[in-house]
Write a structure and sequence with these properties.
Length: 215
């Protein structure tokens, strides 16, 4: 049976927890609660109540939380038709840092992610700083239409090279070999979708996962 128009995710809030860690390989960002590398998992969930406290795993193997770049944001999905996710990736020699939230203490690295009745078409990223610059090839904005879709299927793909880590969440960056399967749909995804990477970067399955939110 075809899904009826107007079906939306049942939960009112998308509580997105952005947990950032620092270690010998630079920066690593995780937003999902269900990777195999459980010490780095987050509190991201869909709920009828907004989260106000950040939930991040403790890290391990010399990696420690970076509170200045971490935050939780409760997106009210009834506030508009579109979830506009801005993925901003910054580069400093030997390191990549991915940000998706608009409200971390380190404001120069915040993004324009929001809920609105209009679809964002222009990427909104803070300027970076301290030797970090915006990497446009890996940055993008995607507007997920939640008006007629029950699920937001988040695919977090992590690639590694020489001890460095890079996390991608969006399906439409110019650097297409590092795109993901994140989508809004009437059905819950059942398999992780990550592009293969390239240039010496390989997919890291233990830090990659997918999560259907809604229902």
């Amino acid at each position: 049976m075809a899904e009826q128009p107007g079906v939306r995710p049942a939960a009112r809030y998308l509580n997105l927890h952005q947990c950032v860690y620092v270690g010998s390989g630079g920066h690593y960002t995780n937003v999902l609660p269900n990777t195999a590398n459980t010490a780095f998992n987050t509190g991201t969930n869909a709920s009828s109540t907004p989260d106000t406290t950040l939930s991040c795993g403790p890290g391990s193997g010399g990696w420690r939380p970076a509170p200045a770049n971490s935050a939780v944001k409760a997106f009210d999905l009834t506030a508009g038709r579109y979830l506009n996710v801005h993925q901003c990736v910054y580069f400093s020699p030997g390191q990549h840092y991915t940000a998706v939230l608009p409200n971390t203490p380190n404001a120069n690295f915040n993004t324009g992610t929001n809920v609105s009745d209009t679809a964002d078409t222009k990427l909104n990223c803070g300027p970076g700083g301290g030797g970090w610059r915006l990497l446009l090839a890996n940055s993008a904005v995607t507007s997920f239409d939640l008006a007629d879709h029950r699920y937001l299927n988040l695919h977090q793909c992590v690639w590694t090279s020489s001890g460095q880590y890079y996390m991608g969440l969006l399906p439409n960056t110019p650097n297409a070999h590092f795109n993901t399967g994140t989508n809004a749909s009437g059905t819950a995804d059942t398999a992780l979708k990550c592009l293969p990477g390239g240039g010496g970067w390989a997919l890291d399955p233990s830090d990659s996962a997918f999560l259907p939110l809604g229902g």
